[in-house]
Predict the 3D structure of the following.
Amino acid sequence: MAPTPGPAPDESRSAVLDRAVPRLVFSWSVVGIPLIYGVVETVRAILPLFGG
């Protein structure tokens, strides 16, 4: 059975996390900011329907 690919043996777990965290923050920002904007705009648009 072939070994599964993973980080290089000389890379520590913290080095891998140091690279992954900025990518995760960027990725969630690309998705989250427009999502929050859309929710806010939707709520603002429907408030007059409920007398707000």
Summary: Helices lie at 13-46. Residues 13-46 form the longest helix (34 residues). DSSP finds one helix and no strands in the chain.
